[in-house]
Write a structure and sequence with these properties.
2 copies of one chain form a homodimer. Chain A is built from 3 helices and 11 strands, in the order βββββββαββββαα. The first copy, chain A, is an alpha+beta fold and 183 residues long. In chain A, strands 4, 7, 8, 9 and 10 form a 5-stranded mixed β-sheet that branches. Chain A has a 3-stranded antiparallel β-sheet with strand order 1-2-3, with no helix packed on it. Chain A is elongated, with a radius of gyration of 19 Å. At the A-B interface, strand 1, strand 2, strand 3, strand 5 and strand 6 of A face strand 1, strand 2, strand 3, strand 5 and strand 6 of B.
């Protein structure tokens, strides 16, 4: 039988823009041992698979400061305080690609980016019938290139290692489980 | 055209057990704007889908300090300095489940856990023909329950939200892309 640890104290160690780092003091309820664990707190994350009227997926290329490399992803970002995750996902798509849809985004599933030390949840959406509605709107320091590719090419982009972001891969996995294939 | 930023300086902010947090000063090579970005450095991570001689997948249940909850996952962990990721994955499986195989683990693929602020890569493996070889060996504070389930049930465990760890889902996605289904 696995036990949940008791939280005794939580100390803020760092406040970064996109997350905070806490040292959390916890005790095992049965064994009684205590220790300090590093926990990164972040708001919920969202990402979204936008599909155009022509049946193409919108992918984005951008420089990423963690990997220090240019990655191929789907739109996504942080959920603002009090914001509905579906609205956040649609907002990120609109800002990062300049595309939007008159339909509502559909929740594909939610997942835990890394429960070992991250506290948050990521929500993956599908947004059908997207079309260009205006210019991209970048956050500070953002620079994003948009590519429209047939869904049937996504399998190949993953196998060739072009799409490597775990959270993006998870969104496509949810899509595949619901649709039977990446088509 | 997307540019890679130039790294000007890197300051260590925190040294936690499983990662370090840096503030990285970078400049855009064309626009010339400079800013500080939070980057978490971690060794490579591995996870592994162990399949028993009876064709069952070994899953593990454990308490996770990030999500403050008990999760259902596959074995995995950090790659030690100088360690081959395949050896690390096999070692984690042996330690966490008490199972091992005489065969070599097969690389399913590698992915980036979160290129936005994490620097590292996760390697996903498949290990066939696993059998019990001894008792589990836990790291400090670890407590792990092992479950053997038919691969055909994994789809259902994901759809019911029992398996929610993004990196574990990515390993099963790679498995599905190579095998055509979760069978």
């Amino acid at each position: 039988m696995i036990s949940e640890w008791e939280t005794l104290a939580r100390m803020r160690r760092q406040d970064c823009k996109i997350f905070t780092l806490d040292a959390v003091q916890r005790r095992h309820p049965i064994r009684g041992d205590e220790s300090e664990f590093a926990v990164i707190n972040s708001p919920a994350w969202v990402n979204i698979i936008p599909i155009t009227r022509a049946g193409e997926v919108l992918l984005i290329r951008q420089y990423r400061h963690g990997s220090d490399s240019i990655t191929l992803e789907i739109p996504g970002g942080l959920v603002n305080e009090g914001e509905d995750p579906a609205i956040a996902a649609q907002r990120e798509c609109r800002e990062e690609t300049g595309y939007a849809s008159g339909q509502d985004a559909i929740l594909l599933g939610s997942h835990l980016p890394n429960p070992a030390f991250l506290n948050n949840t990521c929500y993956a959406y599908l947004w059908r019938d997207c079309m260009p509605v205006g210019a991209q709107r970048f956050d500070e320091h953002e620079e994003i290139e948009v590519l429209a590719v047939p869904m049937a090419q996504v399998d190949d982009l993953i196998k060739r290692g072009e799409i490597r972001h775990s959270l993006v891969l998870t969104a496509f996995f949810f899509y595949m489980l619901q649709n039977g294939s990446l088509q």
